[in-house]
Structure formats: C-alpha cells, structure tokens
Amino acid sequence: MIRGRSEQLEALAVEMYARGLSTRDIEALFADARGQSLLSRTAVSEITERLWAEYEAFASRDLSEFEVIYLFVDGIAERLSLLTPPILFGLACHG
Fold first, then answer.
1. 57 occurs within a structural domain
2. Per-residue model confidence as pLDDT tens digits over 40-58
C-alpha cells in the first residue's frame, strides 16, 4: 500500500491538500523517476481524512466561554472550493 512513507512525505501531502490539490493530484506528484508511486492514493486518502477529522474537531469546539468583543474574518481562495474555510480572529474581553 505505502512505499517509502515518511513524516516528510506526509507533511508534504498535508501542505498540498491544504493548498487545494485533490487526492489524485497529490498521488501523481509523489512518483519517482521510473513513475513508481511513492505514496499511494490510499495513503493520501488516509492522510487527508485524518486532517479533515482534526479540522472538524477544531472547528466544532465550544467557544461559548469566551466573551468576544470583535470578530475579524478574512480568507483567500487559491482554488475555487466550498471547503476553503475563512480565517477568524476574535478579540475577547480579557485579551
């Protein structure tokens, strides 16, 4: 399933996914000079699914304990996608 999987390959796959590349795009980029896949589509899918689960847990955490005075929203879309989340910054009452 996974040939040569390492933390560095996983980190690159996460960065590529965060920049909007698809699982298929990422798999295609991880090939050696002979065209052999260094990171399979299954491995890329596992990595992106884990990343998405971490994002969902982070995005759904309870923030009701914070008294937000100002909320700043910003974002940039490098690629047309409904999954591109905005960046939110909040200024709480106590800093």
1. yes
2. 778 888 888 888 898 889 8
CA 33, CA 9: separation in Å to the nearest integer?
16
What is the number of structural domains in the chain?
1
Examine the pLDDT at 70 and tell me if it is beyond 60: yes
**Does the pLDDT value for residue 92 go beyond 70?**
yes
In a domain, 72, yes or no: yes
Q: How many CB atoms lie within 10 A of CB 30?
A: 21
Q: In angstroms, how far is CA 26 from the centroid of its own chain? A: 13
What stretch of H or E contains 88?
Answer: strand 87-92
Task: Please determine, for residue 76, whether its predicted confidence score (pLDDT) is greater than 60.
Answer: yes
Residues pairing with 71 in the sheet? 90
Contact 79, 55 (CB under 8 A): no
- Whether pLDDT at 27 is above 80: yes
Tokens of 82: 């409904």
Find the domain containing 15 and state its range.
7-92
